[in-house]
Design a protein that fits this description.
The complex is a heterodimer of chains A (about 350) and B (about 300). Chain A is of the alpha/beta class. Chain A has helices at about 20-35, 50-60, 75-90, 100-115, 235-245, 255-260, 290-295, 310-315, 325-345, 350-355; strands spanning about 5-10, 15, 15-20, 40-45, 65-70, 95-100, 120-125, 125-135, 140-150, 155-160, 165-170, 190, 205-210, 220-225, 250, 280-285, 300-305, 320. The chains are: A alpha/beta (about 350), B alpha/beta (about 300).
């Protein structure tokens, strides 16, 4: 009997809702599986979550392994890892994708260590390809290319795991596109029974405090971001003024987050949020590749930097060499004057009509 | 209630290139990297882990041992660890460790921790700034067969062989209680690491690995021979022990490149380019024209 090869996706859920990143990865797994003739399998752990299985199938899975158990009601490393490790040993998936959420980044290395397999964190792209290993004079075909910025973001590395299975990778939310749900898709829901051991419950959760983030960076049409070049909280306020004026959100590079200018939930980049706004304004952001990887799909990019050689200028549509503290007020002023024109001067409507015609 | 039992803590630390301060001369024109242009620093969140460990020792008594795996000059962060309060440090260095990915690294750390023997807590930074993977902590915990508490923000209490920890998550926080021994990974917001103590720096400035003796003797000619220096360091508890793969009983196929399932297929130095781009002068007129254009194209407004 030939075994059906498979790509697994860890389906993260909380409060009856599947994390976006899990469905994004299900869609990506579908694309990869179609290239390879593999099956897409969602691994869904939780309690009273059977109804979520259909949603996983609608987003591209052929099969859902459902571990439904009271001990799995909330994520805990050891019980969740127990299920994944046991099922992966039994069924031997080729590829195992995990969302790069706090829980995913806790779970994936625990599982990879037990399976003695390779794991690549925070991939920004996944592809299928071949790999020639000189030492063995052998070409491995149909490997997962795990592509990620490396070495402080100065390079992009393609990582492969030729000899171990599954090939594991984590990917942050927003990096892969959310697939459209297809209600006509069918799939199999297969229940699995966890075989816990007493040691799996060494950790108990005493309390949980959920903080609903008010930051909606991922869906924002306009994002105004600051980086190391904005050293003063008053300057950062300019970003907020501009974002408010444009109906957008404020983001930041890692440097801005590390400097305490803005919360970590607002970080744009490989280890933060990946965004695709209509307009991205990068103020005082030099443009390390980790940051660029999280925003280079933006429709229009304005870069403001005192350093004319800042890498951000390489991908910007508008390059402004200057101090953000001086340039931002100019943009704010220009926008205010435009809106005043519109409100006060009927003549301004002509400009809008021209825009519509063009 | 404070648990009267002293605790033995092992802290995992890493020396990393200072990737947060990459300057222009790090990348050469042909796309290769000038590693010498990056300074080597103590991985920031490992300092938070060390600080948390020292605070636990101050409260409960016990020991804090710092291990690092790295090149011989990683002894620098071990000396720094001593100045910041560690009681004992160990350097894991061996050419055969080179090229290790996170799985192979966690094997070596497991072996070293097991050689140390008794421990109640293993602590490390959440992640290292050169790879940002956050994998070595959980992988080491798995190999030791102990639970892990990632994203530790603060220790709320230790009693009856269990530790209560607040975890910082993107989506909020969680308070967990876990049996010891267990492994904690510590986030940067957990504390402000104390600066190296001047008193300890004076007392421990000569702490050195055997590989550093020759250089040390040149700087301190009053030690007429390396043997004299070694005897002095031994008498004053200033020898930094070095453990090789053989010392920790790590087999060749589990460590270094050979023990690493991940391999680098290729490295690209990508030059990203925008389609159309234009330089806009930082003048009111030029900015107003740009804004007009964005409104015209329905990008804003």
């Amino acid at each position: 009997m030939t075994e059906q090869k498979s790509i697994w996706v860890s389906i993260e859920q909380a409060d009856g809702r599947i994390a976006d990143v899990s469905l994004e990865l299900t869609g990506k797994a579908r694309d990869l599986a179609d290239q390879l003739g593999y099956e897409v399998v969602g691994l869904l752990c939780g309690h009273d979550v059977e109804e979520l299985a259909a949603e996983v199938i609608r987003h591209g899975a052929d099969r859902v392994l459902l571990a439904d158990h009271p001990e799995l009601a909330h994520y805990r490393t050891l019980p969740y890892a127990r299920v994944a490790i046991a099922e992966a040993r039994r069924r031997r998936p080729e590829i195992f994708l995990v969302g790069g959420t706090p829980n995913g980044r806790d779970f994936a290395p625990r599982v990879a260590s037990a399976l003695r397999c390779g794991l690549t964190a925070d991939c920004t792209d996944l592809q299928i390809g071949d790999y020639y290993l000189r030492r063995e004079d052998r070409t491995y075909t149909n490997l997962l290319y795990q592509i990620r910025p490396a070495f402080g973001g100065n390079l992009v590395a393609t990582i492969v795991n030729p000899n171990t299975r599954p090939q594991m990778a984590t990917v942050r939310e927003g990096v892969m596109r959310m697939p459209a749900a297809d209600a006509s898709r069918t799939g199999v829901v297969e229940r699995v029974t966890p075989a816990f051991e007493p040691g799996d419950f060494a950790l108990e959760v005493l309390s949980r405090q959920v903080r609903y983030s008010t930051v909606r960076l991922k869906d924002a049409a306009v994002i105004v971001s600051g980086g190391a070049g904005i050293s003063d909280p008053a300057e950062f306020e300019l970003l907020r003024d501009l974002a408010n004026l444009l109906g957008g959100e404020v983001g930041g590079s890692r440097a801005a987050v590390d400097a305490g200018m803005i919360g970590r939930e607002s970080q744009v980049g490989q280890t933060g949020t990946t965004v695709r706004p209509r307009l991205y304004i990068a103020a005082g952001i030099s443009g390390a590749i980790q940051h660029r990887a999280g925003m280079d799909q933006s429709s229009k990019i304005i870069a403001i930097n005192t350093d004319p050689n800042a890498p951000m200028f390489q991908i910007a549509h508008y390059r402004i060499v200057g101090d953000a503290a001086e340039v931002l007020p100019l943009i704010i002023k220009a926008l205010r004057e435009r809106s005043t024109d519109r409100a006060d001067a009927p003549g301004a409507a002509v400009g809008e009509d021209e825009g519509a015609a063009g | 209630m404070i648990d009267p039992r002293p605790l033995d803590i092992v802290v995992l630390a890493k020396q990393v290139p200072d990737t947060h301060n990459v300057t222009g001369d790090v990348m050469t024109k042909d796309g290769t990297m000038n590693r010498n242009a990056l300074s080597a620093i103590f991985n920031p969140e490992d300092l938070n882990a060390l600080e948390m460990a020292v605070q636990i020792r101050e409260r409960h008594g016990g020991t804090v041992t710092v291990i690092t795996m790295g090149p011989p000059n990683a002894a620098n962060i071990l000396r720094e660890s001593l100045w910041r309060g560690a009681g004992r440090v160990i350097l894991l260095t061996d050419r055969r460790f080179a090229g290790a990915d996170t799985l192979a690294t966690s094997f070596a750390l497991q072996k070293a921790i097991e050689k140390i023997g008794r421990y109640d807590l293993v602590m490390a930074g959440r992640q290292a700034i050169d790879g940002d993977t956050a994998q070595v902590g959980p992988q080491t915990a798995e190999k030791l067969g102990i639970p892990q508490i990632t994203y530790a923000e603060s220790v709320l209490g230790i009693a009856d062989g269990r530790i209560t920890v607040e975890r910082a998550l993107d989506s909020g926080s969680e308070i967990v209680r876990c049996q010891m021994p267990c492994l904690l990974t510590v986030v940067g917001s957990a504390n402000t690491p104390r600066p190296p103590s001047v008193r300890r720096q004076m007392a421990l400035k000569l702490a050195a690995t055997p590989g550093e003796y020759a250089a040390l003797q040149k700087r301190w000619p009053e030690f007429e021979t390396v043997e004299a220096l070694d005897a002095y360091l031994g008498a004053h508890d200033l020898r930094i022990p070095v453990w090789t793969a053989d010392d920790i009983g790590a087999t060749a196929e589990t460590i270094g490149l050979a023990g690493s399932p991940t391999q680098v297929h290729k490295i690209n130095f990508v030059v990203l380019e925008s389609g159309e781009s234009r330089t806009v002068a930082p003048t009111p007129e030029a900015i107003a024209a740009m804004v007009a254009e964005l409104i015209h194209e329905y990008i804003v407004g």
